[in-house]
Amino acid sequence: MTYSNGLFAGLDIGGTTIKSILVDAKGETVGDIVEVRSHVKDGFEATFAQLESAMDQLTDAAGQSRSAIKGIGLDVPAPCSDGVIWGKANLAQDWVGSNIRDQFSSRVDIPVTMTNDCNAAALGEYAIRRKHLGGLLLVAPGTGLGGGMVLPGGRAYEGQHGLALEVGHVSVPFHEEDGTLPPCSCGLEGCAEAWVSLMALRRRLGIELQKPQWSDHPLADDAVPIQEKAFQLRDFASDGDALACQLFEQQANILGHMIADVVRVFDPGLVVIGGGLTEADFRDDYLQWVKDGFAKRAWPMYRQSPVDPDIETTRFEWATGGDGAAALGMAYTAREMFR
After folding, report:
1. What is the CA radius of gyration of the chain?
2. Is the pTM for the entire model greater than 0.70?
3. Range of the domain at 79
């Protein structure tokens, strides 16, 4: 099959793998997602070689040469602005200050657009929802708490310097039982991520297990590291365990509170929740807990229309794009920019 109007590649650089996908000029995916190992710790030149390998595997499977690719969408797991990496994150030091977009474009002689991984995932969720024409806010609880937003029409809102939508570092008015604010990975205190993340689960689980009421809980075994106990919490919550459900309900309520403040600023209309909870057995309960926290903080007009109460002004959905959402989002972005 020939593609007279070209193909467009989405390349999602992760810490361990690079996921890649092709779409045609109509936005239809061509072939399957290709994954190759990521070498971000070895520097950006080593990663460029892996990106080229992924592109060649994509085009070979489609029966095309690399010249069929008319544009590339690239996302990176770090803050970036106009193609330049601003922070190391989990990358090698040589990434910082380098214009990755322009250097890779020059290397492969194909135009490239670039953003961070959270924006890319939001763009992917937007691309999947072809009938949705409004805005979209993505929040993704995981090791940390990421976020991204797509404006009506399908363009990511990145801010002046590409640093917008760091939702995990919105301050929330919640304190530990001793009155202190929990420390955040960013160096501040009281951020949403300090409450809604795997790291927060570890901290909160450790605090709760010190209480007499949980002394007989299976997770109270001192021989098991707290990291392993936290990973088990999702299974416990799926079985209705009181401690696990309490911890996830607290996280979800605080997440809903934070979302209400972000919605008051941007009014996206649709909030998509991604991260590792999307396939949890208790996700219906989790989503309801998010909505409960949202309802306590959001003004009535951000919940239902004052003109027609049957219309929800802010809808909540689970992410459906899976691990390929970011690559798909960047392929669609490249298609929009370079076709």
Report:
1. 21
2. yes
3. 7-110
